[in-house]
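Data deposition worksheet. Section B asks for the primary sequence of the deposited chain exactly as it was used as input, without tags or linkers unless they were present during the calculation. Section C holds the resulting structure in token form. Section D is free text for depositor observations; keep each observation to a single sentence. Incomplete worksheets are returned to the depositor.
Section A, Depositor: J.P.
Section B:
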Amino acid sequence: MKNWKLEDVEESAKANPSSFFIPPKTERKNQKIGDEVRLHFLLNDPTSDEPRAERMWVEITKERSLFSKYKGLLTNQPVHIEGLNLGDEIEFEAKHIARTVIKKDSPLWIDSAEQKALVSEMCFQDGEFVRFLYREDSDREEDSGWRMFCGTESDEYAGDSNNIRIVNVAYLLDLDPTLLTPLKGQVGAVFERDTLKSDWQEVKDWTPSEE
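Section C:
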């Protein structure tokens, strides 16, 4: 009997939205033969000196369909999991993909996917969404420079750090795939929209305060 199982990263991300980030669902469902994905192999009964999971990469050899799962070959040699070896075939689903490798020539590629954005808490309230965002220069590698707002925040609200959440950019894209268009922007980009169905409009006559 195997001593591991694959983690359902969709459930883990729902349970820990501020710290557990996964690629957008459309991306996880459209991996091709030759692509590499990272899966989390959970140990059934880890000892005190063992990790909760081994995070390993798999190269896809069979694409998923409505009636079948992905198949791929393990490209790492497990350290703690017995009976599993480099080159073994793994069968898995989109819900098991914790990370993907997106090539720069892919239309889904953005340079900030693994970085963080500062987002107004108001954007996460029921019925609300990001209507305004801009990208400024950042001196920290983990900071994408993206700043996102609902658009109705007062200056006082937006200026209170307690009202700002630090969120992984890929997680935001999973919540709202329409963000892909503005997120392709570089430092200095500013975008706005009125509704979720509105097209994003680039703003040319606004710059952030230098306070």
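Section D:
The mean pLDDT is 91.
Residues 64 and 70 are 5 Å apart (CA to CA).
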